[in-house]
Amino acid sequence: MATKHEQILQYINKLAIGEKISVRQIAKALNVSEGTAYRAIKDAENKGYVSTIERVGTIRIEQKKKENIEKLTFSEVVNIIDGQVLGGRSGLHKTLTKFVIGAMELEAMSKYTEAGNLLIVGNRVDAHELALSSGAAVLITGGFDTEDYVKKIADEKELPIISTSYDTFTVATMINRAVYDQLIKKEIILVEDILTPLQNTAYLYTDDTVQKWYEQKRETGHSRFPVVERNLKVVGMVTSKDIMENDNNIPVEKVMTKSPITVSEKTSVTSVAHMMIWEGIEILPVVDELNRLKGIVSRQDVLKELQMTQRQPQVGETIDNIITTQLDASSQKSDHGELFQFEVTPQMTNPLGTISYGVFTSLIYEVTNRYLRSLKKGEIIIESMTTYFIKPIQLESLIEIVPKVLDLGRKFAKVDIEVFNKGHLVGKVLVMSNLIER
């Protein structure tokens, strides 16, 4: 039977797009406490079912698919620019396709303003009316208001009119940045993208016997299974090591490993890879906020996805992406083999104009990874990194990075890295890493 929390989420999910909800309304409709209703609404907001806007309230919005995450709803725009909704509240759930800067004559503006657009303009009532008649929403900059008859048109057409105190340039920059951040998030692979869902997951109940484990093993070919209570709450993991030399009639609850490591659907695949390597785990249960089983993720799934991700083009580039693309393996060779070259650009510096520690660390990680891959040693997980800054690395410096293996085993590597600028040693790093075999 569904919990009150789940019942509220199901209720919200069935509401019409654009419908307004409140804690008091939910509590009254489902006969639950306001505290329970509040927590469920916050959870729904995290899942993307609803959006809460200051001075407007909470409204049901269309849950966006990940591949369309670069598009924003008007309600998200309100939150980004700290706006005030003047009219057309019932259209806040709609998605904008592009925004148009209204710094032109009215006739020219009509050529660029289409349905689904957001017109960013100042105190020009005629432009507000034109945009609404074209099916576009309006964002008024400078903190200005508009006429009442325009607000009435917005309500009739269900197209929001939003006012903000920011100027046009600042607003456009803020929205652009929000879209860009969404593009970066889109490229981060999460557990929910690769998990084996519950309906395809083999698991055991606490009162199942060891005999049931053998049956599951024959059917699936696997030997590791999550152990759950009847409400699907994960309480353990059972493997072939746990089963060995135990009677077939013993409940798995008696032999399982209790309090297993679990992950959520929003955990990044990189974090899962790190967990699996350090803990020596082949399979991790995926759970919800109440620790109930949602599926599993295996080491093979993780490694396959990491290899696929490396071959994908980057749309919203992070500093790490920029480092990866700008780092060149020089045609020259050092006495120890590989030699990498890298130019320090303005966005990679600290306020003093020298390379930032975070960028330098990312650079060393990328060099170490490439160097060990060239030796056919697979991917790495850094265990420790000891860094010595001998001289500051200036803006627009072309640096040469020379890695050298100190010790190399099947599952570990020690690498000494020297960094040169114009022939002078400027940095030295000792990297200890674990190796992930391909």
TrEMBL record:
Domain named CBS: residues: 195-255, 256-314
Pfam families: 4HBT, CBS, DRTGG, HTH_24
UniProt name for this protein: CBS domain-containing protein
UniProt keyword annotation of Glycoprotein present: no
Alphabetical list of SMART domains matching this protein: CBS
Swiss-Prot/TrEMBL keywords: CBS domain
Record-linked Gene3D superfamilies: CBS-domain, Hotdog Thioesterase, HprK N-terminal domain-like, Winged helix-like DNA-binding domain superfamily/Winged helix DNA-binding domain
SUPFAM superfamilies: CBS-domain pair, HprK N-terminal domain-like, Thioesterase/thiol ester dehydrase-isomerase, Winged helix' DNA-binding domain
InterPro entries: CBS_dom, CBS_dom_sf, Diverse_CBS-Domain, DRTGG, HotDog_dom_sf, Ser_kin/Pase_Hpr-like_N_sf, Thioestr_dom, WH-like_DNA-bd_sf
